[in-house]
Design a protein that fits this description.
315 residues; 2 domains; 15 helices; 0% strand; respiratory chain
Length: 315
């Protein structure tokens, strides 16, 4: 792809997200979402490979369906309340439909099946864009409609996502699929806190995107597409291996690293709201995610390829 076309596509991608984030009219928000979707399709299919074409098609179909559901819910709301204002979603059926549409757009379980497949069919850089930038517009819509969205649905979606993301990531060997399931689990934590505390809901994605960007950059530098590839990081750059170890543990939410902070605050707020069973279930699901991060950390820093036995380090 030529640099001029690539620049135009990236500009359209940024414009689509900004239009959605700054609009108060549902039609403008929908236009922003559609622009965002159409801009990323060529980026996914740059490889000219059947798998990347399949990933682009899957992504387009799911995002188009979610955008149509968002437009439909706003039309129902406008028909019943007479307003197209995003913050005035007062009709209950349209709020339920909007919750489900945003869940499909973000990749929240049980509407998460498209995300690992799409990430596996695209490059690591495209996967980074999809797990960070592409989540901005739907998260901003959740933030704007937070007071009207049904909290029980949000809590259930959050718990399901966290559990499915942690459980499904256990038997993966591809780093992109692991990152996809990690994204599903983290978005679950964001959905969980969305209807309770807006400040934590803003902080949670900021911390996660910062860590994910750093982790993806490390994986791109070491060209690690599978868990076995991460074992070679130590032989090429020891500094990179140590940074990757810290990042993996941080994304997993191991105290006292940065990734533990959002989880701690979410759990604290859930206990404050007397949702103790929910908080316990979320903490248990976080352990599932932590397990596959620990496995990645082990192969990255404590083994030498092609063996998986512990190496003798002389630090």
């Amino acid at each position: 792809m030529s640099p001029t076309i690539y620049t135009i596509i990236l500009s359209s991608l940024a414009t689509g997200t900004i239009v959605t984030m700054t609009s108060f009219h549902w039609l403008m928000a929908w236009i922003g979402l559609e622009l965002n979707t159409l801009a990323i399709i060529p980026i996914i299919s740059t490889l000219h490979h059947p798998r990347s074409t399949e990933a682009a098609t899957k992504y387009f179909l799911t995002q188009a369906a979610a955008s149509a559901m968002i437009l439909f819910s706003s039309m129902i709301n406008a028909g019943n309340t007479g307003t197209w204002d995003i913050t005035q979603m007062s009709y209950a059926p349209s709020n339920i439909l909007l919750s489900l549409a945003l869940a499909l757009k973000l990749g929240l379980a049980p509407a998460h099946f498209w995300l690992p497949e799409v990430l596996q069919g695209s490059t690591l850089l495209t996967a980074l864009i999809m797990t960070t930038w592409q989540k901005l517009a739907p998260m901003s819509l959740i933030y704007m409609t937070m007071n009207n969205l049904p909290s029980t649905i949000q809590l259930k979606l959050g718990l399901t996502s966290s559990t499915m993301g942690g459980g499904s990531g256990l038997n993966q060997t591809q780093t992109r699929k692991i990152m996809a399931y990690s994204s599903i689990a983290h978005v679950g934590w964001m959905a969980m806190i969305a209807s309770i505390m807006s400040n934590i809901m803003i902080m949670n994605p900021m911390v996660y995107w910062m860590m994910t960007t750093a982790l993806f950059t490390s994986v791109i530098c070491s060209k690690s597409k599978t868990i076995q590839d991460t074992a070679t990081t130590w032989t090429t750059s020891r500094t990179l291996a140590i940074i990757m170890m810290l990042l993996l543990l941080s994304v997993g939410g191991l105290p006292p690293l940065t990734g533990f902070l959002p989880k701690w605050l979410v759990l604290e707020e859930l206990i404050m709201q007397n949702l103790i069973p929910m908080a316990t279930a979320m903490a248990m699901s976080a352990l599932l995610s932590l397990f596959f991060y620990l496995r990645l950390t082990y192969t990255t820093t404590l083994t030498l390829p092609p063996n998986t036995l512990q190496m003798k380090v002389k630090w």
